Amino acid sequence: MRVAVIGANGGIGRELVSRLADAGHDPIGIVRDESQFDAVRDRGGEPRLGDLEGEFAPALEGADAAVFTAGSGGDTGWEKTLLIDLWGARRCVDACAEYGVDRFVAISAYNASEPLSEPESLRPYWVAKRCADDYLERSSLDATILRPTRLTDDEATGRVSARFEFRDEGGDAIPRADVAQAVVACLENDGTIGETIRLFGGDTPIENAIRPDG
Amino acid sequence: MRVAVIGANGGIGRELVSRLADAGHDPIGIVRDESQFDAVRDRGGEPRLGDLEGEFAPALEGADAAVFTAGSGGDTGWEKTLLIDLWGARRCVDACAEYGVDRFVAISAYNASEPLSEPESLRPYWVAKRCADDYLERSSLDATILRPTRLTDDEATGRVSARFEFRDEGGDAIPRADVAQAVVACLENDGTIGETIRLFGGDTPIENAIRPDG
After folding, report:
1. CA A181 – CA B162 distance, rounded (Å)
2. Which residues form the NAD(P)-binding domain (chains A, B) (predicted)?
């Protein structure tokens, strides 16, 4: 499967490019800057330029699926949350529809289901993610939305817990590498189409955890 | 008509409460702080407390229509744009559905139709307004969306120009008082239900300008 990774230079994106290549897929790593091309190639991906605030859609040419894992990050202002995490995500959905990329996996956030959750400082982020998710859900794409809890840079464990329902006690932190592996598992399991899956650290092998009956 | 004005202490909201009262309607002025109650009463409105980030929905009790003219304003950060202009607006739509308030007029912004318009500095705002508008459009409410161009505190003229289609050359600034009058005109004309209307300064009497065939 040719999978366009949007945000291929991010924490999850880098892991995802590697894992897609390892699993025999053909990752396309979409980045904003040519200086990031070598890093994408080193991980087995085909680098392409795409700017979520500018020219973007042609970078999807030939892709079978797209994964949105771009984020404005914690060091930029909330205006970038609006422009990248929300509007950029919507533009990706539109671009996929335009280019016939039918399969879409979005990396959302745990409390996008309830944006006014604690801590208050994260509420604006959850609003943006929720609104992006809603747009994707209403689109024509075959979508899976992953809502991981707090992300860490810990080693992959190959195991997570997943819930398809709201779990208000929150959940354990999850390594970005395990989120990346969950994306691969979703792309390889059409049963996840139309599902919104909360992910947190846990004990279930990833391939089992993301099954709708898992 | 009992009309709940959400953001009754804002520039448009204050004008709107007065004009609704003058036109024989019963405005309910929803504000965040009891210190604003007297100002609402002075304009002929019934003041109620409502917090768009907290307890809000009960303030709509008994209303026939609601007007969303709350805004985080230019002096707050973009996080408030996400929390008030976007999520607060969505909460209002949900609250209206819950309380049986079927008619809704939203004050949006001119370039919500094309959020990546110039100037770049306003793009995050247009993203928030657009996403709020989209949510309203998909709701069950009888909605009218007004998208005024740059707002001024000039005297009311009683005249505007309105376009139902995109007009890429922008438009002339418009007094807040004329936007408020356009809201009253929309509430009194069911032909505006389901319409998104761009408003700018002009020469057409407001009641005529907001007609779908105007």
Report:
1. 52
2. 7-189
Q: What is the pLDDT of residues B99-152, one digit of tens each?
A: 999 999 999 999 999 999 999 999 999 999 999 999 999 999 999 999 999 999
Q: A214 in a domain, yes or no? A: no
Per the CB < 8 A criterion, the answer to whether A8 and A31 are in contact is yes
d(CA A88, CA A112): 17
Peptide bond into B124 cis (omega under 30): no
Long-range CB contacts (within 8 A, 24+) of A73-78: A73/A10, A77/B77, A77/B78, A78/A124, A78/B77, A78/B78, A78/B79, A78/B81, A78/B82, A78/B124
Number of domains in chain B: 1
Q: Residues A35, A36, A37, A42: is their CA dihedral positive or negative?
A: positive
Q: Which residues of A touch B (CB under 8 A)?
A: 53, 77-79, 81-83, 86-87, 90, 115-116, 123-124, 127-128, 131, 134-135, 138
User: Given an 8 Å threshold on Cβ–Cβ distance, is B131 in contact with A86?
Assistant: yes
The residues that bridge with B30 in the sheet, in sequence order, are B6, B48
Query: pTM to 2 decimals?
Result: 0.94
User: pLDDT tens for residues B15-24?
Assistant: 999 999 999 9
Separation of CA A119 from chain center: 22
B214 inside domain: no
* Predicted interface score ipTM higher than 0.90: yes
Read off the CATH number of the domain in which A93 is found. Answer: 3.40.50.720
Say whether A179 sits in a helix, a strand or coil. Answer: helix
Cβ pair B87:A135 closer than 8 A: no
d(CA A123, CA A198): 17
In a domain? residue A24: yes
> Is B191 inside any structural domain?
yes
Tell me which residue range forms the domain holding A75. Answer: 2-209
Q: Is the dihedral of CA A14, A89, B71, A147 positive or negative?
A: negative
Q: Within 10 Å of residue B155's Cβ, how many Cβ atoms?
A: 9
Nearest C-alpha neighbor of A18 from the set A29, A6, A33? A29
